[in-house]
Design brief:
Helix 1 packs antiparallel against helix 4. By secondary structure, the protein is mainly alpha-helical. It is globular. It is 58% helix and 0% strand.
Length: 74
């Protein structure tokens, strides 16, 4: 498996993952089944490669940091 960076995941899908996490609808630790169940399967390799094994605060921190970096005005 080639590890993909989260840069390959569209912003809208990262927002969806963060929203699901805030709602308690994204079960952690994240698994391939959970990625499919939440409709994020197109980005399974990237999400599992960077979020697998992390608890909720860590996943929230990673997603928030990536989104913050992307959404800053240039």
């Amino acid at each position: 498996m080639l590890l993909q960076a989260l840069t390959s995941v569209p912003t809208d899908d990262l927002k969806k993952a963060l929203l699901l996490l805030h709602r308690g609808e994204l079960r952690l630790p994240i698994t391939a089944l959970e990625v499919v169940r939440t409709g994020l399967h197109a980005h399974q390799d990237a999400l599992l490669g960077h979020l697998r094994g992390l608890d909720a605060p860590a996943v929230r921190a990673v997603l928030t940091a990536v989104l913050s970096e992307r959404l800053q005005p240039r």
